[in-house]
Amino acid sequence: MNENLSRIQHGKHHDPFDWLGWHPLPGGQWALRTFMPAAEAVEVVGHGEMTRLEGTDCFEIELPSPTDPAAHPPLRWQDKQSGDWHDAICPYTFAPQLGELDLYLLQQGRHHHAWKILGSHPTQVEGVDGVQFAVWAPAVQRVSVIGDFNGWDGRRHCMRSRGSSGVWEIFIPGLQPGLAYKYEILNRRDQIVRKTDPYAQQMFMRPETTSCIPADAPYVWEDDAWIDARSRFDWQHQPVSVYELHPGSWRRHPDGGFYNWTELADALIPYITDLNYTHIELLPVAEHPLDESWGYQVSGYYAPTARYGSADDFRLFVDACHQAGIGVLLDWVPAHFPKDDFALARFTGEPLYEHADPRRGEHQDWGTLIFDFGRNEVKNFLLSNALYWIEEFHIDGLRVDAVASMLYLDYSRKAGEWLPNQYGGRENIEAIAFLREMNTVVHGYFPGVLTIAEESTAWPAVSRPVEIGGLGFSMKWNMGWMNDNLSYIQHNPVHRKYHHNLLTFSQVYAYSENFVLPLSHDEVVHMKHSMLDKMPGDYWQAFANLRLFYAWQYAHPGKKLLFMGCEFGQWSEWNVGRELDWALVSFPAHDSIRHLLRDLNQLYRQQPALYQYDFDWRGFQWIDCHDSDQSVLSLIRQGDRPEDSILVLLNFTPIPRHQYRIGVPASGHYRELLNTDSEYYGGSNCGNEGEIPVQAHPWMGFEHSIEVTLPPLAALFLQAR
């Protein structure tokens, strides 16, 4: 047995295309060779039986010229065990399918559509139907595609090496969408590892860990009007109000089963439309092995999770949202990935996607691995993935998780547990460059698409353009506002006057970034209590405090975000294993919270003063921020037109305050646009009936003033008429 035969027989040939397939022989004839371990006999249709090479599962036939060496003659083979005959075409008769430019761009980290060439793709090559596979796995001896179609035998479909690119590819005739597959890798240490496809666009339902050949029929979108309008979306000066949800626990079937995307669309879209939200934000929907990770430990970056249906089912969901006028944001996780041995971790049996040094390559707190952002192919994997969700699924924005952990090399590490950068600093230079490039690329391809950073430190210019030194995000979560204000509202009202600065401090930095005010899933888990359960006081006061707090979020500059269940005052913390406590909606006190949020969203969307200058000091003015003794705030939100200005008064105590005087910028009369103490919202119905006359009484630096009644634990929105 010659060396080529031996290496092929034992699955150790680095590139079996060098010997299998068509090869010229002396005298003008050609040899056609194939390797079929399950075959008792093989014949070439129309040319006769192939010869088994002694001691091997390789078969060969000599064919005279002028047989076309580019042809792919049909084969018939007899199964050793069953004796049945099957049709096949030798995969080794096909030329390379990936172009040199593709390989070059991958190596440079600039192939923005890498998912179109890597992974598995049903296609037709030279008139033959099959599936094209390609994977990046450098510095290994052999890579094979394995599945039911070849008995999971890694010798059967060994891939072609594309040299220094580290890419391996093969076209396998006859395969169909829906089949399971993995890659089998023989590394340089003679270890065999079996891995799911990093670029797989479909995975099987957990606990399965196999990739699935995706469907080849393109989805027909019907959201052209939305996509066209999105390209001109002036998000800085338009309302953005986001309902954050986990699709697996918003609703469940009575038996605990998940809603699929179609069922979720049917139930969710009318609900969101009624509440007047502009967008929904989905917790990560990329494939992940553990429900309890909420989707944040991703194992299949290009595969919408099978929990809720197929990739096209997800497209249908997004399409339906767009046709209903609802934007769809997606939580995206480039900061880390899990250690599951079937996925990205030690992909070739050695670190590949992660940094090899655990001081840079591992999050000790989370038990996850960190991408090696300095490696072009890894950076390309993530850049392409960001574009993939937007291009393939029409996603309107990416909320990037755990950005702070990417920016700092010493994030959550003690001295000696981290490595400084080349300048001796703590900044992760490669990750910073990646984030800047990601934002530049996304905004370059898709104007109007949002990128939003969850960044919890004082890193400067997160939401400023790359060209002036920023990270390039559209917006940033305002974690300072969230922490300060949640801390404040949890104090007993009698003590709030001592913590008044927690309400006002955010104005010191409110316009340093384009901020989102997040009341997210992270604030209603891990013994932090639900939003309603955070509120002090008796039953009535707890609901009143919650109404007041939501009104304060809408009065404060910044886009809005609220997690599911908070809109009707769920008492219990969010539990990923079951649906929300929907029975509470039948109680008026809880449903009234939902009514309030519906009206707050409507007011926010209808009144330019509440959104035109969310990121600009021109949109906000204190009337009085110093009344700590009475725990009262008064302010003005303003837009382009002075007549659109809205006065907001907030009373953070349960004491009604009558004849409370504030200065006002306009003459005439004011009227209530919204009062959170209305009986419609479950309040005491204390407030101001009819018009409130403006008096020529200078006050607080204004030439005019009004006297109003401030309801207990309530907010008033007033406008001049």
Automatic annotation (TrEMBL):
SUPFAM superfamilies to which the protein is assigned, alphabetical: (Trans)glycosidases (SSF51445), E set domains (SSF81296), Glycosyl hydrolase domain (SSF51011)
Family annotation (InterPro entries): A-amylase/branching_C, Branching_enzy, GH, GH13_cat_dom, GlgB, GlgB_N, GlgB_N_E_set_prok, Glyco_hydro_13_N
Ranges for domain Glycosyl hydrolase family 13 catalytic: 244-598
SMART domains on file: Aamy
Pathway: Glycan biosynthesis; glycogen biosynthesis
Keywords of the record: Carbohydrate metabolism, Glycogen biosynthesis, Glycogen metabolism, Glycosyltransferase, Transferase
CDD domains: AmyAc_Glg_BE, E_set_GBE_prok_N
Function: Catalyzes the formation of the alpha-1,6-glucosidic linkages in glycogen by scission of a 1,4-alpha-linked oligosaccharide from growing alpha-1,4-glucan chains and the subsequent attachment of the oligosaccharide to the alpha-1,6 position.
Subunit structure: Monomer.
HAMAP family membership: GlgB (MF_00685)
This protein's name: 1,4-alpha-glucan branching enzyme GlgB
Species assigned in the record: Candidatus Thiothrix phosphatis
Lineage, opening ranks: Bacteria, Pseudomonadati, Pseudomonadota, Gammaproteobacteria, Thiotrichales
